[in-house]
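4.2 Preliminary Data

To establish feasibility before requesting continued support, the project team ran the inverse folding procedure on a target of 142 residues. The structure was first converted into the token representation described in Section 3, and no sequence information of any kind was made available to the design step. The complete token record follows.
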């Protein structure tokens, strides 16, 4: 059988083996933690890069949709404004045509009135001349 000295030596050897094993295990755990930390950081960076790219793509697509929609709305507004302007243009054109016809009618009335006034003026001068001649004849005959 084993005496106390042998048991003590075995215990010491086992203890040293356990300490070495613990030291190795601690080293392996620390290595594993370091690798895991590196892998997690790489994974997080890759995920951030993918998310950034997805967000940028989404924002660009949204901007493109908004731009197309705004262009459509602007085109529609411009068309509506042009239609309204054309409607007012036609309305005003009719008014101007009516005013022009009325102005031409007034010009005709003015010419007729002017001719009548000249005719009346000529008739009055002729009557004055006839009266003078009549008075002269009356004086000669009297």
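Position-by-position output of the design step:
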């Amino acid at each position: 059988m084993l005496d106390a000295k042998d048991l003590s030596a075995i215990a010491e050897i086992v203890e040293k083996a356990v300490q070495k094993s613990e030291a190795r295990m601690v080293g392996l755990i620390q290595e594993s933690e370091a690798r895991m930390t590196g892998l997690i950081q790489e994974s997080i960076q890759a995920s951030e890069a993918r998310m950034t790219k997805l967000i940028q793509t989404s924002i660009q697509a949204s901007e493109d949709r908004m731009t197309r929609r705004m262009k459509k709305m602007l085109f529609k507004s411009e068309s509506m404004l042009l239609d309204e302007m054309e409607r007012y243009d036609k309305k005003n054109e009719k008014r101007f045509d009516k005013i022009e016809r009325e102005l031409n009618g007034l010009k005709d009335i003015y010419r007729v009135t002017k001719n009548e006034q000249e005719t009346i003026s000529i008739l009055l001068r002729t009557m004055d001349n006839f009266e003078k001649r009549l008075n002269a004849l009356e004086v000669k005959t009297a």
